[in-house]
Amino acid sequence: MLTSFSTALSALNANTTAIDVVGNNLANLNTPGFKGSVLSFHDLVSQSVGSGAGTTQVGFGVATPVTIRTFAQGAIQATTGPLDAAIQGSGFFIVKTGSGATEYTRSGNFLANAAGNLATPTGEELQGWTTVNGVLNTNAPIGNITVPVGALAPPTPTTSASIDLNLNASAAVGDTFSTALEVFDSLGNSHLMTFTFTKLALANQWNYSASLPAGSATPPPTPTAGTLTFNGNGNLIIPLPTTAPPVITAAGLNNGASNLSVAWNMFNQGVPRITQYSQASATSAVSQNGTATANLEAVEMAAGGKILARYSNGQQIVVGQIALATILNPDSMIAVGNNNLQLTARTAQPAVGLPGSGGRGSVLGGAIEASTVDIAREFTNLIIFQRAYQASSKIITTVDQISQDTINLKQ
Questions:
Q1: What parts of the chain have a pLDDT lower than 70?
Q2: SS3 294
Q3: What does the pLDDT read at residue 48?
Q4: Would you state the pLDDT for residue 214?
Q5: 14 with 65: CB under 8 angstroms?
Q6: Residues 102, 336: contact at Cβ < 8 Å?
Q7: So what's the architecture of 160-288 in CATH?
Q8: DSSP type of residue 156
Q9: Residue 6: per-residue pLDDT
Q10: Taking Cα atoms as reference points, which of 240, 163, 177, 245 lies closest to residue 206?
Q11: C-beta atoms surrounding 141 within 10 Å
């Protein structure tokens, strides 16, 4: 009978632990990336009562329950945070603490710290790859992801340009048509490159001349000139698509920039960009690959875990890439606070790689994974554990009353 006290006490302790777990789940109902825990109860070894071995077995109660963290997918919620990220599928973000310890998290509300590194709100630095000299090497070891803060995008000199236009087949001999294209030098200064087309006496032929303004360089730039020939259907036949494109050059720029050399692409994968039809001469599109110096406007998380820097000239440059880790038995990890988990001796070795590869989930930008806690289920569990606690306490009061009755037998 006396063992009933310890049996009931074990049940009180177990249900107290269960209520603590439910309380922790409910407390983290709104914690991003939080994974709720469930409990696994198991009984203690039984004692055999009576002469027959195992004929009558009386247990010693219930052991302290084991908590198991469940890694179900949480709901993906859109946010306004430019660096927020959510994992759809398996995997963990990798973070480094101030002491250099590696931890793992599903919470993706990131920001840039004072050093320009992506970090969690509690200071752990996100791990991945940073673009170096315009190259993103995801085969290199992972490290802190450094984003440009207040940086300027260097200018890109124009090396290639194209113009889509039509020249009027009904134009009189000597008629001209001009169009212009803005190009950039090595210092980011813009120059207006002018293209002039003159109708020749020979059928379906035009002369062209392309150059920078006379005052842009010393000596003045020499125009690049040539002849265009069309067939009776208005298609460009000379030069041929296999002919090297004409190059427009300007040496000795007055602003001190490097010499400018721009290849004029008259074809798009073998299809002429210039036609000659009986319509007014007009330009339909222009393109060039140079950019001016630009201010950084924002750093944003893109799909796939790419970090994009957006500049005032419209450029978007990949400046970093998030790494994900997959762990075969994530339930073996332990929570260490700040939404982070740590490996234990029972945890399989993490496999680190790009999102969307090797069984790793995808990363969605501008979103957060919500907590997996189900408030209805947790309240149901709370009622069950409360009733179990009350039942166990009733055992103690009952055994106590029986003990008193037993003591009173001798009086």
A1: 1-2, 46-55, 410-411
A2: strand
A3: 56
A4: 84
A5: yes
A6: no
A7: Sandwich (2.60)
A8: B
A9: 81
A10: 177
A11: 9
Per-residue model confidence (pLDDT) at position 54: 58
Question: In terms of C-beta density within 10 A (0-12 exposed, 13-18 middle, 19 or more buried), how is residue 60 classed?
Answer: middle
Q: For residue 237, what are the contacts with CB-CB under 8 A and spacing of at least 6?
A: 229, 230, 231
Contact present, 387 and 3 (Cβ < 8 Å)? no
Residue reference for tokens 């690049």: 224
| Three-state secondary structure call for residue 368 | strand
> Residues with Cβ < 8 Å from 204, sequence gap 6 or more?
169, 229, 230, 231, 232, 276
Question: Got the DSSP string for 301-327?
Answer: E-GGGEEEEEETTS-EEEEEEE-EEE-
Question: What are 375's strand-pairing partners?
Answer: none
- pLDDT at position 335: 93
C-alpha to C-alpha distance for 388 and 11, rounded to whole angstroms:
8
Q: Is residue 127 a contact partner of residue 110, using CB atoms and an 8 Å limit? A: no
Residues 6 or more apart whose CB falls under 8 angstroms from that of 133 comprise: none
Q: Domain segments of the chain: what residues?
A: 3-71+372-408, 76-153+296-369, 160-288
- Cα(181)–Cα(178) distance, rounded to whole angstroms? 10
The per-residue DSSP string of 213-248 comes to -GGGBSSPPPPEEEEEEE-TTSBEEES-TTSPPPEE
Residue whose pair of structure tokens reads 């036609």 in the numeric block: 275
Record the tokens describing residue 354, joined without a space: 């790009």
At residue 60, what is the residue type?
Answer: F
pLDDT for position 5: 78
Nearest to 134 by CA among 323, 357, 362, 315: 315
Structure tokens at 261: 């050399």
* Residue entry with tokens 């990336």: 33
Q: What is the pLDDT of residue 52?
A: 57
Positive or negative torsion for Cα 385, 387, 388, 392: positive
- Supply the pLDDT for residue 342: 96
Helix (H) or strand (E) holding 26: helix 3-27
d(CA 128, CA 94): 8
| Contact status, residue 126 vs residue 118, Cβ threshold 8 Å | yes
Rounded (10°) CA dihedral 112, 116, 118, 119: -70
